[in-house]
Task: inverse folding
């Protein structure tokens, strides 16, 4: 079945540092790929998505590129802020039912 | 757009009791999903509805679990004879038919003592 593997955390960074969270997937079809974020005390929010190979999703300074050849969707941000401290989830959905399969999540803490 | 709401936000119950959670999706969203999230893990799919029809149930959804969406609007998730292993965050999400993006509610945190 479909599955997502993402980099284990926790990750602790200083403000303005570069952030990368690795995500790889296994799917039988051609899934859509997502990054969701969960800020402390809040619900899951969509951060960005990509629906086909070589698409780049971007939002709030974060970027991720759908790489079919390496089955990856790594999340990057060039300069993190304290407000980026959250749990980040990589996820995929197959065409049709659109149910999401999530990775285990990566906790990111940014220190001032 | 008031977002997806879930009630209650927290529930503590004793083993063997029944509990029911409610989800109100974004209005006019045809699809409604239920997920379960345990500590340190990502959400896991439980079931989903298209309008009032329940189209798929995960193997995680044992016979003690039942979900309904009687009028194609709000949904309820009932757990009968709760067990300690049912302790988790139960998340609801909704989306428009044909759209991949799901919008999540804040979740209901269940603790079974």
Result:
């Amino acid at each position: 079945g479909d599955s997502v593997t993402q980099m284990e955390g926790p990750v602790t960074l200083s403000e303005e540092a570069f952030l990368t969270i690795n995500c790889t997937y296994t799917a039988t079809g051609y899934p859509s790929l997502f990054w969701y974020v969960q800020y402390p005390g809040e619900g899951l929010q969509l951060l960005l998505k990509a629906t086909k190979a070589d698409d780049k999703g971007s939002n709030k300074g974060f970027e991720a590129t759908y790489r079919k050849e390496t089955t990856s969707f790594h999340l990057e941000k060039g300069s993190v802020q304290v407000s980026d401290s959250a749990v980040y989830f990589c996820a995929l959905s197959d065409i049709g039912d659109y149910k999401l399969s999530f990775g285990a999540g990566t906790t990111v803490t940014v220190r001032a | 757009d008031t977002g997806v709401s879930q009630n209650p936000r927290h529930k503590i119950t004793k083993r063997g009791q029944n509990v029911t959670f409610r989800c109100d999706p974004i209005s006019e969203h045809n699809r409604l999903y239920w997920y379960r999230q345990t500590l340190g893990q990502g959400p896991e799919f439980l079931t989903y509805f298209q309008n009032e029809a329940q189209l798929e149930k995960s193997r995680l959804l044992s016979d003690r679990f039942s979900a309904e969406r009687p009028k194609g609007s709000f949904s309820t998730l009932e757990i009968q004879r709760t067990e300690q292993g049912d302790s988790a965050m139960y998340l609801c999400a909704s989306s428009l038919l044909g759209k991949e993006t799901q919008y999540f509610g804040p979740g209901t945190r269940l603790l079974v003592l």
In short: The first strand of chain B starts at residue 5 and ends at 7. The radius of gyration of chain B is 13 Å.
